[in-house]
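Quick question about two entries, pasted in order.
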Amino acid sequence: MSEKPVAALLRISQTIVRVQLWVAMAALVLMMAVVVSDVAMRQLFNHPVKGAYDAVGILLGVSVFYAIASVIASRQEIVIDLIDGMLPPRALSALKRFAGLLSALVLTFIFYAMLTPAQEAYRYGDISLELRIPLWTVWVVALVGMAGGILASLMLQIAPHGLQPAGAPDVTGDHFE
């Protein structure tokens, strides 16, 4: 693959990962706001926020599924490096690439497993308890987040040191100082 298409593909992937991270952060902030508002309204006025249960559940899913891509792209997964010190650099690089491929396969399997419940939620017209949001839309949002994780795993095959944009702090090391 020539350098220009690869660079463009990596830039697009970095943008997708960055957008997904912002969505995850926004969902987390909104979730905290809903919880704080619900508790305050319940304590002060004995009138909880309607739909807080649904909103928190949906926002939690969004924050998890959309953060996966950033964790993978920045190589901040939890790893146990039992044999890293014993392997030569080329073997370690091959092992990391294999782990990245395995990660992409596992995430693809999870994505595939999520399709049936999404289709069933659409087919049966399932809705959330309080907000009455069609659940298939929640599944679609989760599937988009999972697709970002798959993309990040696959892009690490091209950029094995991570998808961090130029000028971003280096977080690809094994240990933080």
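Here is the second entry:
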Amino acid sequence: MVGRIIEYKTTREIWGALNKVYQSPSIATMLGLNSQLQRIKKEGITISEYLARIKEVFDKYSAMGEPLSYRDKLMYTLNGLTEEYDGFVTSIYNRSNKPSF
């Protein structure tokens, strides 16, 4: 870290650089959340539990200042459903008014 801040001349510049490094979400964190969303499946759990797990990850994205788009939320939510929900998924994709998150 010292190598990063040595080039700055004022404490304000140093503070700004440190803030930028530690306040912004890291690529690793974002990729980890993305991977977590891809692994959440509605297998062996209730639909309420499934949706709660999905929402928890959506909230983590938002807390980091990187909220997911509506399209991404819909895609992740519907892709994790099992085959028994295929009819439901099709009806959601064909609806003009989409569900809210």
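Reply: Residues 26-94 form one domain. Helices lie at 2-5, 11-23, 27-39, 47-63, 70-79, 86-94. Hope that helps.
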